[in-house]
Amino acid sequence: MKKLLGMSLFSLILTACNDKPTEQASTTPVTSESDVVADIANTTTTKNPNWETVIVATQADFPPFSFKDEKGIIVGFERDLLEAIATASEFNVDFIDGRRNNIQQNLDGDSVGIWASSISITPEREQVMDFSEPYLNHERVVAILDNDANANIKDVSDLVGKTVAYSTFDSKGEEHVTEIVKDKSAIVPEKTAFLALKAVYSNKAIGALGNNRSFEYYTAHYPDLKIRLIPFEGRVTNSGFAIKEGNTALKQKLDMGLEKVKANGTYDELFKKWFGNTQS
Asked: Least packed by Cβ within 10 Å: which of 59, 77, 214, 222?
């Protein structure tokens, strides 16, 4: 099972010396509202014909939250959790691949009902959309190799002037890496968080800025490849499922389902499956 869950990540990291990185199997993501509507026909078959079906959009290139397996099927912690929540609250969910810069457009246009892509709950977002209760907390960290060469790196101040990679998927990545290294020539932009981590293993960068939960997934499935996590801000952020502003009925279903799966132990099982431990 571990091999199946992480095959794409494993190939991505272990091909670090290749000029062309190995990408996960994928289909073309939806990038506009019309694309989302057109893609609905290709979503998962409804499980219960007596239940409402809600379309869930996610940017499926961010393990372990949402990504595609070898067959191009969307998998991940968020899919597993939303399917459990939906069953508990008696509605169906179908998943499509989208782009995070279309979140509000998709929700307001009713082409999708839920956006799930490790979306942080922020005051700015809460002004234009609603969220479920938080389903996960996370913090920003820098991953470095846990070896003798990095023994003197204790906190982010020790990374000044050193190369640090980040994902361009991260809207604050460049800003925060520049804050860490104090030198724009030392920042290493990559397309995804795991390509940023790949830069560390290929000696292209000393560290990789990212989400601690992503790195927990990586270390849980590949414990022989040792990394150490250095907190960036020490600030914990909550993620929630985004929905159209004012959709109280769907919010109630999400919140009730989340409460149920936490109470019956399903949440803990899924967290351990993807992150290898219990939530701290």
From this structure: 222
